[in-house]
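Researcher: Following up on the earlier apo prediction. This time include the ligand. It's 1-O-phosphono-alpha-D-ribofuranose, with the SMILES given after the sequence.
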Amino acid sequence: MKESIERAKKYITEKVEITPEIGLILGSGLGFVADDIENAVLLEYTEIPDFPHSTAPGHEGKLVFGKLKGKNVVALKGRFHLYEGWNPETIKFVIYVLKSLGVKKLLITNAAGAINKSYNPGEIIIVKDLINFQFKNPLKGQNLEEYGPRFPDMSSAVDLEWASKLKEKVRKLREGVYIAVLGPSYETPAEIKAFRKLGADLVGMSTVPEVIVANHCGIKCLVLSCVTNMAAGVLETPLSHQEVMEVAKKVKEEFSKIVFHALEVL
Ligand SMILES: O=P(O)(O)O[C@H]1O[C@H](CO)[C@@H](O)[C@H]1O
Ligand SMILES: Nc1nc2[nH]cnc2c(=O)[nH]1
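Model: Understood. Below is the ligand-bound prediction.
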């Protein structure tokens, strides 16, 4: 893995001058955030040695480097989900590449279903904690001690200080617990009822592996979920990825504004 990280890093640093401080992982239909990056330099995932490629709809597969709200950033316009068939270690590799490029903080975004019935489609929620219902861990296998410990602590997996600074600025933001499933099928109503009993407010098929690796290698994370739909069984309508992407598109301005605030409070 070390050689692959070095190869990817070498390719990227030869093409891009800036050192990104903040990484942004953009969820389904949320890639528009990268369109506001100034002096953008774009790299296709497919051109970077050993880098995985995006296969999920609504995930373009580009790294975008540049300035956002005065900060040097790199945005991942497209993430890697386990349901695509990627090995969990692929996610470790991607986060390690970000770390090797200089990323200190990660703003992770996702589209999620609302288990909490008081949430509304289009609402943006700060994730305060996570449940790994994927039962896979990206840190399995040989540990690279120079990146982080074998047994990382997960008692504050997200950066609550960053979250509270954002909440001070955007008072209406509510918080919730995100549960990650493997997917790609959406949940049954019985699963959603069970997840509610477990204490989950939001459900999706991503984010948790990214947070685990980031936490392990000392990158602080803020997670923002865009509620794109009420989870299965809450309403009578069936779920579709089409709807997920449409709702994400509708909240474009509001979502971008909150991301800008999240960068400004740093
Ligand atoms: O988590 P992101 O990538 O935002 O996408 C969410 O939306 C897709 C399902 O509609 C799944 O990929 C789920 O994880
Ligand atoms: N698993 C899951 N992922 C989602 N992504 C967006 N909405 C949902 C949902 O309801 N369930």
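Model: The CA atoms of residues 95 and 214 lie 7 Å apart.
Researcher: Noted. I'll compare it with the apo version next.
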